Amino acid sequence: MKYKIYNYLAGVFSLVIITTSCVNDDDLIQIDPNNKAVDSFWKTDNDALLGVNAAYGSLLTDGTYMRCTPLLLDLKGDDTRSNSPWGAMANVGRFNSNPSNAEIYGWAYETYYQGIFRANQVLTNVPAINFEDGALKNRILGQAYFLRGLYLFHAVNMYKNVPVPTELAAIYPQKTEAEGWAQVIADFKMAAELLPKNYTDISGLDAGEKGRATKGAALGYLGKAYLFNKDFTNARDTFKAVIDLGVYSLVSNYRDNFTETNENNSESLFEVQFSREAGGVDLGWGGAPASGWGKTSARAITYGPRGFGFTDVQPTWALYNDYQLEKTKSNTVDPRLDATIFYNKPGGMQLYGKDFATTYASNTGDLNDLFCRKYQNSDGQRPDEFDWRSGINERLLRYADILLMYAETLNETGNTADAYTYIQMVRDRVNLPDLSIVKPNLTKEQMREQIGHERFLEFPLEGHRFDDIRRWGWLQDPVKLAWLKSRDPEFNSYAAGREFFPIPQLERDNNPGTIQNDSY
């Protein structure tokens, strides 16, 4: 079952934290006396598996990939814009999140640390369990390291100087950005050593289960962590290790990466498992999961076209226009445009079984506007997204990303010529001309710009663009910042330091000494 890995005993992980003026950390951790399961838990292989399943569960809630995390990753890029009536959402893309209002960014922060806490429960308790299956024990520990690394990756990447919990305690001091990244790298290294390449060639309680972290996923994120820290040599070698696994390949149909068709495919290194059919019907807004929860995504309704969803996120015209810059070998528009954006296409375009031009004929504004197509149930099987029950898996890391990041590290380490090969693998899928012929002998600086363009067209609305903008230093480059402003007016309200979100006020209240990020 797709959702087997998310069935767990949430009550086992309940803590009552009582704060007073003169107590030790150990005194602050109180086990819920009404929860008898704690006394008998962490005894068996199955207990350990349920424990790591709980850590996966934090990927499903509103703060993470049900809704908030995609918004936080997408809205600051020049591929998206927001006219949401919800101020907290619209302000994300305008670099104006309010430290006193933790909606969206604060919910994400809270959930990342929920996931870290659950992973730390596994890493603290599982080593003492006497397993019947030693290989299973390694896999469970490897998954816990991976998930802790993933949640902390998001926390450091979005909030900069954050706590770095590696054990169970009541208070965790704020650490530097460098300390946070060091732990992320350490966790992904451990995960890569312990995890299998897949779950089809193993035996045990987790055999054949989709959605679990693998060696390739751990190495992929390890490479990203190196890349984000400009350690291009280690990043290059790590991405090459992913390629050399021989596990991954690009799927022929680009759109298969964003629908329920062909989920967990050969291109996917890690994806969050959503399903319309799994569990109950209640939305997973946060807290401990209950039996009535439905494990579905709210991305589709949040990003949905006018009349079919809330239209809180829309593509920019800069994205639309950039797809027109280069024709395919057949002299057609890049097919990724139609897989990414709904628009008034000459000759017609269907959405939810209806013609775009006919649907919006009475509203000139909508008729001449752009709407999101990625991650929409729009191929005719659903009338709209208003049931809040999208089952489309969120693809966090794709092989195309590995190939383009590897090309980037080749370029940055002085091997621009070989970077062409891996860029072309991504271009070939959409029938674009041979880059080495149309743009031969690019310099390192020119190739760096080309890779930026290639990534922009391959990954819009997938949470990568703003990460790229920030790590490339474009916000500190007056020329690049002016260019971004010309493409997306939301950048006009950018102020230095606002590339990171504020530390939520509740975190500062509960963790004395926490320093707020610059510009807030």
UniProtKB/TrEMBL annotation:
Keyword Secreted on entry: no
Keywords, sorted A to Z: Cell outer membrane, Membrane, Signal
InterPro entries (alphabetical): SusD-like_N, SusD_RagB_dom, TPR-like_helical_dom_sf
Subcellular location(s) of the protein: Cell outer membrane
Domain SusD-like N-terminal: 102-227
Domain RagB/SusD as annotated: residue spans: 267-520
PROSITE patterns: PROKAR_LIPOPROTEIN
Family in the record: Belongs to the SusD family.
Protein name as annotated: RagB/SusD family nutrient uptake outer membrane protein
